[in-house]
Design goal:
Protein name: NAD-dependent epimerase/dehydratase family protein
Organism: Intrasporangium calvum
Order of helices and strands: EHEEHEHEHEEHEEEHEEHEHHHHHH
CATH architecture of the domain at 4-182 and 204-233 and 283-301: 3-Layer(aba) Sandwich
Number of helices: 13
Pfam families: Epimerase (PF01370)
Structural class: alpha/beta
Shape: globular
CATH superfamily of the domain at 4-182 and 204-233 and 283-301: NAD(P)-binding Rossmann-like Domain
Strand content: 15-25%
Domain NAD-dependent epimerase/dehydratase: 5-230
Radius of gyration: 21 Å
InterPro entries: Epimerase_deHydtase, Lipid_A_modif_metabolic_enz, NAD(P)-bd_dom_sf
Strand order of the largest sheet: 3-2-1-4-5-6-11
């Protein structure tokens, strides 16, 4: 039973929400919230400790407080949240290595809970309809958050071999969405002009932000369950999602989607990566049998209900910027770079 809990990434939205929910559990004696910057939101009765998990000082904090449960929430999905890809990878990979090294040396640590991601499965046309936890990616993510998640899980498995006495739970969360959270996916669906892969209509699964936190609290206070997929029931297709957010759509050939994504990224409207483009083209499905029968967790929101909760706060827009048609045509046909430059100007005007 968790008594003294250390939570990383407490200054981020999900980390703060988790700390507030855990604060309501009278069985938890003490909560330490760790991050490099003070939180701008409430963290309940958690005590904020300003520390960098990349620094060995995190080990001294664990030992002094006699922490028995570590909840690793500080695996960051979008580089713009950290100032760039280099910093994102340092926090995700190096930070996890240092945190696990501290856990290994802390005799009081009895449980480790890690917020992982379904991004480790990647997205490809060869994928099964549903990924179970013992399946590997058909096309392994080679960059970005997906690659970081694979490395993080690898380090956790290595830690479990060195400290077999520590109970470990890793939750592979589907894309988290909701009325408050901001992610690369929510940024994409709020673009004023949404590029979509031409000829594809991927099946998507989502997890409501409240269910994501409830699952993590269950993993903290309940029995250890190993690796578990967590997602809302059912699927939505990409085009169904676009209809719900009532935004104009820009169909682009898959071969040029990366170019369009780079234009959108430079405009500052959303983070795009090759993994995201593949996800929008091929989708991803998670088998949640273990979630129900091992974790014994039932999400309150289905995939549709989770997306509807998000879409309710998205205002419809009409893209009326001059030159959209010519810019799109030029960009997707590679008209000497002129089309791409014109399309970039379109997104710049749309972002104003």
């Amino acid at each position: 039973m968790a008594r003294i809990v250390l939570v990383t990434g407490v200054s981020r939205y999900l980390g703060g929400l988790y700390a507030r929910r855990l604060s309501a559990d009278p069985g938890i004696e003490r909560i330490l919230g760790v991050d490099v910057i003070p939180p701008r939101h409430s963290i309940g009765r958690a005590e904020f400790v300003r520390a960098d998990i990349r620094n060995p000082m995190i080990g001294r904090i664990m030992n002094q407080a006699e922490v028995d449960t570590v909840v690793h929430m500080n695996v960051i999905a979008t580089p713009k949240d950290t100032g760039g890809r280099v910093t994102q990878k340092e926090i995700n990979v190096i930070g996890t290595m240092q945190l696990l090294a501290a856990c290994q040396k802390a005799p009081s640590v009895q449980r480790l809970v890690v917020k992982s991601s379904a991004a480790i499965y990647g997205s490809s046309p060869r994928d099964p309809a549903m990924f179970a936890e013992d399946m590997n990616a058909k096309s392994t993510p080679r960059s970005g958050f997906g690659k970081d998640s694979i490395e993080v899980e690898g380090y956790v498995r290595g830690f479990s071999r060195r400290r077999p006495d520590v109970e470990i739970t890793m939750l592979r969360l589907a894309n988290v969405i909701g009325p408050q959270i901001r992610t690369a996916v929510t940024d994409y669906f709020t673009l004023p002009l949404i590029p979509v892969p031409l000829g594809y209509d991927a099946r998507l699964q989502f997890l409501h932000e409240d269910d994501a936190i409830a699952a993590l609290v269950t993993a903290t206070t309940g029995p250890s369950v190993g690796i578990v997929n967590v997602a809302g029931d059912g699927f939505l297709t990409l085009l169904q999602c676009l209809a719900m957010v009532r935004r104009p759509v820009l169909p682009v050939p898959l071969a040029t989607a990366g170019l369009i994504g780079n234009i959108v990224k430079r405009s500052g409207l959303a983070d795009f990566s090759p993994d995201q483009v593949a996800f929008l083209a091929f989708g991803r499905g998670l088998d949640t049998t273990r979630m129900r029968h091992v974790l014994e967790f039932e999400p309150r929101y289905s995939t549709r209900a989770a997306f509807e909760a998000f879409a309710a706060g998205v205002h419809s827009v009409v893209a009326d910027v001059e030159g959209v048609g010519e810019a799109v045509t030029g960009a997707v046909t590679g008209a000497a770079g002129g089309g791409a430059a014109a399309l970039a100007r379109v997104f710049e005007r749309l972002s104003q």
